[in-house]
Request: fold
Amino acid sequence: MPARAYSPPSSSGRLSAARQFLSDVWRLTKPYWSSDEKWAARGLLAAIVVLNLAAVFMEVWFTQINADIFNALQEKDQAGFIQALLVFGGLALVFIAVAVYRLYLNQMLQIRWRRWLTERYLGDWLENQTYYRLQFANTGTDNPDQRIAEDLRSFVQLTLSLSLGFMTNLVSLVSFLAILWSLSGSVTIPWLGIDLPGYMVWVALVYAVGGTWITHKIGKPLARLSFDQQRYEADFRFSLVRLRENAESVALQQGEVQEARGFGDRFARVVANWWSLMRTQKRLVWFTSAYGQIAIIFPLLVAAPRYFSGALPLGSLMQTSQAFGQVQGAMSWFIDAYVNLADWHATTSRLTGFHRAMEAVRADARDHAGVERIAATDGALTLDGLALTLPDGGTPLVRADLTVQPGESLLITGPSGSGKSTLLRAIAGIWPFGRGQIALPGGIMAAGGTTAANGSMVLPQKPYLPIGSLRAAVTYPATPDAFPDEAVREVLDAVGMAGFADRLAEEDHWSQRLSGGEQQRIAIARALLHKPDWLYLDEATSACDPETEERLYGLLRARLPGTTLVSIGHRPSLAAFHDRRMTVRRNGDGVGELAAV
Reply:
């Protein structure tokens, strides 16, 4: 699916863009802190805040102890020096414990928050086949797997680190401003003829504001580059996964050269954007490194005249230098956090875009269902005035009026691409594009699977085999323990896979391990286990040889005598296993129409 490119806001819209960004952050953040886990989350956050404040308090105390140490050295006061060192050692032990538990509790809150968000996003993504409908929605939502697996992790980590970092630096700024103000004294500005009290505070302010402005100018492209880098990395990774999942098809067609070309093109975008990131970050690191190094010596240069004049003792000079560093560092928080802020902005944009796309898809499915699905009152499957279209909503695909009574068996044939499979998708509820009404026996079937309400099951041409045990693959979509081992082994033997009966506990990537025909036999085994009242087969035996196909259909008719079969197929031999046959023929406009044979 094509991804929408990142576009930075115009100059006139920066304020509204900032408000929108903060609104997006709040929209992503608020649900967890008002959920059923809110008290545990708030308690953890409160503990982390207290530990951060304690760390700031101890930093302030450290500056006073350092002043006492250097003053004792200057006065050659050995007793005072030892006493100050003992206090320093005790405070250092407490500081270490605070640092350890501040990190530990922060990580605990991160994983709890991430788990809650992941469960919520997975639920929204899976609900009502949103993951399927997103494929047809022009939302620019690329790589939902990355947004759930990586962006949620980054969002939680960055939100906590940046918000707590901002709070800690703000408290540190207020705490050390008072110290720096009291130690600075005043300086006379000759050309203004006034005394400027607390001049070191003003120097720190000018130094930090100037550095922040330059940092923003240099690093402004990082938000866009970070956004694009995440997208290009995900596109490249997804293409590798697709090759792994379709390895046999590519190998049979010797498509390695074409695949390599595709990988090269995608990775070239990764590399090109990475070089842009490198150049921007190089310029930023040049400045921030110089800025940080100058900040070490700068307060000593500014305060040295008062020390040499005797107005400041050595300890107070060192305390002034430390306090200046803390104030300047707090004021320069934006500089140090700029790269993380850019990543936070990009991650938030991706998550809010994903969330809005899912909401839009669900709202469209709810408000513009197109095809109406109702519960049948007579127990029959009825398609009344069904006219399906392509996802664009305007291109007609297939029309059908049909009634299937319970216990009947119907075979639908027709040329490839005529819309046969789309009819089953509409019945299963995953194709809403079009108009008309579908009356479903026993209730409305949950889209795409088995339900206890009406015992319906759909077997697609390519069965889905989850990664895990063979037992889980056979019993899907039920849980692996839903059927006894004897029953699972028996249906495997019945479909001609007795050799796998003793491998039920073996875990593997079965869709890569089994042939197409074996996978379809697994799907038939599922139907034999679940015994649905209505079974829809979309070329579910097309990968099997004719003899195996006839044997599998014979099993279905023999073991599921009360099950209604609706099959889509091409082989004439299937007609013997069905009571009725219909075909999809294209009319003069190229639209498929279902008609009796």
User: Anything to note?
Assistant: Residues 85 and 249 are 72 Å apart (CA to CA).
